[in-house]
Design brief:
Layout: H1 2-28, E1 39-45, H2 50-67, E2 72-78, H3 83-95, E3 100-104, H4 106-115, E4 121-126, H5 129-133, E5 146-150, H6 155-165, E6 171-177, H7 181-196, E7 200-206, H8 212-222, E8 225-228, H9 232-235, H10 238-248, E9 252-254, H11 257-263, E10 266-269, H12 272-287, E11 299-300, E12 304-307, H13 309-315, E13 324-325
Parallel strand pairs: 1-2, 1-3, 3-4, 4-5, 5-11, 6-7, 6-8, 8-9, 9-10, 12-13
Antiparallel strand pairs: 10-12
Helix pairs in contact: 2-12, 3-4, 6-7, 8-10
Length: 328
């Protein structure tokens, strides 16, 4: 009997030791898929349209590629064109203590600026940071917790496109949303350049989507050619603008490819996906490498001459060599 008890005790001790030995790895090794992301990034996009959508996608793709799958978590929010909603979104990001905010378009950037002066902010699809943020003596970097990428194209280059296509026109209308600071900035830059070329220039502004049709109609009645800068309200209403302009037989030169695809004849285009990609790489430098956002200069995307083949044919616009047809 004593021998059996001894054997039983020995077996019990062996099993207990085996159990202890097998439990150690389980306690120290967690499945990779259960690891929490190293970084949390909030994305505030002003409105849904192809250019801004492409910038957001490029940003996310580049950051994942730089940091690795599962290393970053995105909270992407769309403000549906409302600046107040941008503020609500950015304030929530601050409450959530995200590691970085990506602000897509100027109103989103301004909302992020108002929400925090400590969390790094990267803007994209912003034309001019100095005017948007009220910075004097601009040197390429903001000196604050903000940096990013610009979709700006030189007014002289865009005016040259308009002049190349419509050298005999006398009147040009600048069509844009009065509530978008970047649009006004671009119009103010374009006007003296066009006037220096001999054009008579008039401005036509709409307050929101409700008066786009009426204002576009007035612009087409008064002008031979229209110019629309990188304007988010216009980009959300290209079908409406196009229907008015085509009926009036008035061509439109635009500040970006998405607008041109919807209602224009020609543009100097950047790839908004590529612009977002540059922004994503900047985010990786901040999050992974500890780069100081305040010292990071605003970066730009290269541009190319492009044209809308359908609208050019409908309006009889002859496109010279050097232009690339917009796909789709």
């Amino acid at each position: 009997m004593k021998k059996m008890i001894a054997i039983f005790c020995a077996l019990t001790m062996i099993l207990a030791l085996a159990a202890c030995g097998s439990s150690a790895p389980a306690a120290t090794q967690a499945p990779a898929e259960n690891l929490a992301p190293a970084f949390n990034v909030g994305i505030c996009q002003l409105v849904q349209h192809p250019a801004l959508d492409a910038a957001t996608q490029g940003f996310m793709d580049a950051l994942v590629q730089e940091l690795g799958e599962g290393a970053v978590s995105f909270n992407s929010q769309n403000a549906s064109g409302d600046s107040a909603t941008c503020s609500t979104i950015c304030n929530q990001f601050v409450s959530d203590e995200v590691d970085l905010i990506m602000a897509n378009a100027t109103p989103a950037l301004l909302a992020a600026q108002a929400a925090t002066n400590s969390i790094p902010i990267l803007g994209t699809s912003v034309t001019d940071y100095a005017s948007a943020l009220g910075i004097d003596n601009w040197n390429g970097a903001t000196g604050t917790n903000i940096s990013g990428t610009s979709d700006g194209v030189p007014a002289t280059e865009l005016a040259a496109v308009l002049n190349e296509l419509f050298p005999d026109a006398k009147t040009v209308g600048l069509l844009y949303c009065s509530g978008e600071p970047n649009s006004k900035f671009q119009a103010d830059e374009m006007r003296p350049v066009l006037e220096g070329m001999g054009y008579s220039v008039s401005e036509f502004t709409f307050a929101d989507s409700n008066d786009v049709a009426a204002v576009t109609n007035n612009a087409c009645d008064d002008c031979e050619v229209l110019y629309i800068p990188t304007d988010n309200t216009a980009a959300s209403n290209t079908e409406l603008i196009n229907s008015v302009a085509l009926e009036k037989k008035v061509p439109i030169v635009t500040g970006e490819e998405g607008l041109c695809s919807g209602c224009g004849v020609a543009t100097l285009s950047i790839s908004y996906y590529d612009l977002g990609t540059v922004t994503g790489k900047m985010a990786a430098q901040i999050l992974r490498d500890g780069e100081d956002v305040s010292a990071m200069e605003i970066e730009y995307a290269p541009f190319a001459k492009k044209y809308n083949a359908t609208n050019c044919e409908l309006l009889g616009v002859q496109v010279p060599e050097g232009y690339v047809a917009i796909e789709g």
